[in-house]
Write a structure and sequence with these properties.
- The chain is mainly beta.
- It has a single domain, classed as Roll (Ubiquitin-like (UB roll)).
- About 5% of the residues lie in helices and about 30% in strands.
- Strands 1, 2, 3, 4, 5, 6 and 7 form a seven-stranded mixed beta sheet that branches.
- The longest helix has 7 residues.
Length: about 110
């Protein structure tokens, strides 16, 4: 992971190291820190693909106001990864297009 280890002004305190998957690959990040931060530290720069033009988007505003960091997290699309805390075992995927919620046979989300 590529993280700033020391800074002349800021202090860093991390949660415990947890494992998560991105596109099926196991990675590590610090629990409680934004998903986008963990992805960035693991070298991931593309988080979603725009619906019409199929353009890549990644980390941009970091405050939850844009849609650049939308990803599919544990099967749920349109998760703002810049403000969503990382948890052990999360399954994170690139979002392609508007995102679709998988429904069971009765119409309820799985």
């Amino acid at each position: 992971m590529e993280l700033i280890r020391e800074h002349p002004v800021l202090e860093f305190r991390h949660g415990r190291l947890v494992k998560f998957t991105f596109e099926g690959r196991e990675m590590e990040g610090f629990e409680g820190e934004p998903i986008a931060m963990a992805l960035h530290a693991n070298g991931i720069r593309v988080y979603r693909e725009t619906p019409e033009m199929k353009r890549p988007r990644g980390f941009f505003c970091a405050i939850g106001k844009c849609s650049s960091c939308f990803m599919v997290v544990d099967g749920v699309p349109n998760v703002r990864t810049c403000i969503t805390p990382l948890k052990e075992g999360m399954r994170i995927e690139v979002q392609r297009g508007k995102g679709k919620i998988k429904l069971n046979h009765e119409g309820d989300p799985k």
